[in-house]
Amino acid sequence: MKFLREWASNVEGPIIDIACGTGRVTIPLAAEGNNMIGVDIHAGMLAEAKNKASHLQQEIAWIQDDCTELALDIESELIYSAGNSFQHFITNESQDLFLSSVFNHLKPEGIFIFDTRSPHKEELQTTGMKEFWKSYIDAETSNKVDVFTFSNYNSLTQVQNNITIRRHMSPGNEILKEIKTQINLRYSFPKEMERMLHENGFEIVNVYQDWEESPLTGESKQMIYICKKQQSGKKRK
User: Fold this and answer.
1) Dihedral, CA atoms, 237, 222, 12, 196, nearest 10 degrees?
2) Is there a contact between 202 and 228 (Cβ–Cβ < 8 Å)?
3) What gap in Å lies between CA 93 and CA 2, rounded to an integer?
4) What is the pLDDT of residues 163-199, one digit of tens each?
5) Contact in structure between 229 and 235 (CB atoms under 8 Å)
6) Under 8 Å between Cβ of 39 and 101
7) By the 8 A CB rule, do 209 and 225 touch?
8) How does DSSP assign 25-36, residue by residue?
9) pTM of the model
10) Beta bridge mates, 113
11) pLDDT digit string (tens) for 204-231?
């Protein structure tokens, strides 16, 4: 990702990738000579990340930890979180705890970059009904898989409940098995983000609608925040 590569090129010392997943961004940045630390709560994702990095003979510190309770003995000039991970913190308390963890691991005037989906009307529009999304061929069985989605947005909690249903079909178009997964995502509004970041010790340097640095507008479906740790900020608990 060009945007993060440019920020990383100006950093001395370790860079922390929070909610790194399988290392989709961590590994390419390490390949360019950056000292990377990848943090995630999911052991399975970290195992895959370690496997991918080992094949490329890359030295990356992978740490399994809760991003709201980080206690790394390190401070960084740059911390980032990509892939809209911020939306997984669905309560005010968890959002504040996450931002506090980031604050405590940044050097003075360090930079925190993260993305989150914008609460655009199309993002929040839900029918309350199961909808067909797509079909694909399963690599292991060569059977077709039909994918359906169900979304419901609660305007009081600002949380969208998303259910994905994957139906594995036989060559005769019979349902062999059905797998359901669920995820809840919090949507935060721009003015809400301004208050939240300021109260947690951050100055907003820029906000974009994409990783190409396009200006944020009322029609943007994504928000990319570049934040600086305020010099006057105090260590949060």
Assistant:
1) -20
2) yes
3) 33
4) 999 999 999 999 999 999 999 999 999 999 999 999 9
5) no
6) no
7) no
8) THHHHHHTT--E
9) 0.90
10) 80, 226
11) 999 999 999 999 999 999 999 999 999 7
